[in-house]
Here is the input.
Amino acid sequence: MTLSRPHPGFRPTRLVGQAALAAAFALSCVSAQALEYVANVVASGLNNPRGLAFDSQGALWITETGLPIGSGPSTIIRGETVTYSETGSVTRVFGGQQSRIFSGLPTMFVEATGQVEGGPGGIAFSPNGALHLMIGYVGVHPDLRFTDLDPVGYQFGRLISLGGAVDVAAHEALHNPDGAGIESNPWNMAWSGNGWYVTDAAANALLHVGLDDSISTVAVFPARNLGGPFPTQSVPTGVAVGPDGAVYVSEMTGFPFPGGGSRVTRVDADGSLSVFADGFTMALDIAFDPAGNLYVLEHDANGLLAPGSTGQLWRVGTDGARQMIFSDGLVNPIALAVGPDGALYVSNFGNNGAGMGEVWRVSVVPEAGTAGMLALGLAAMGVLLRRRRR
Here is the structure.
């Protein structure tokens, strides 16, 4: 499967305005300790929203994993019947207008619970503006796609675009980088300059997909003893290239999802690993802002086995200082992106049911003492812009 062309009503939009850029610059001058955050909904009615990405024109693109309906091929995974569906989609938001650009994408759902798994997940744009989607799998052997789930199962575990697709999950079947059970669930990706860095959450590996569609192992994330009955799996999820050129990966951790066991790991060019920030719980995504601050999104701040499902958004400053900046109303958030306006965007209610999903814009609200600094910053930018026009 490859992406079909957008519907005829789709039109390109204009670049983000200079005013938004001026505001982002001014806010960068305000001390982080003086900021509070507020959220507003920018997209709603979504079906289990997962990935977020902005195109070069400032439009927000959202993957929706889909709905628990359909009667396609089924298989048994960890004792549950999982069924194929074609309800995945991609939604675009720009200028306050929300529309589904692609629909009918493959997904799978658990019959007994209605939980949607697999399907459209990571989303990103290459420098030439090409849209790429990750069609996630369900953390089992890749060969199952060609037996129980045949003839449609081949679509899962692939990085797809308008021009074709790369079978990422096949790398696990051929090489099994971590040497443990052969399981694959390609989760997210980040542009590397000559291809894509890809996290395989089930394979516990960071992969690289080259421009020639070749796949190689960059790093393997080992299991750790975190107090459970057996070693806890890494489960790499979010991935971002830092301002220093290194790759950063969030390790969500697997069962029993211990509190404080999740972390962000720095991956050097030679594949060596070092802990950049730790003490998180179920970190699912990360993103850097232009100033070099790292943001970490927790899916469930107290773990899946404890009551409640509140997520949290953390900021790790360039000096390493950590601050929990927002949590009010976050319920099982999954994806995070820094917008061209400098705000943070979060896909909320990421696995909570049909039509419940939303995307929130989380932005800073300067305290009274910093409002003057913000105004001065905006005024300065206005002067600079006027001079440039002359």
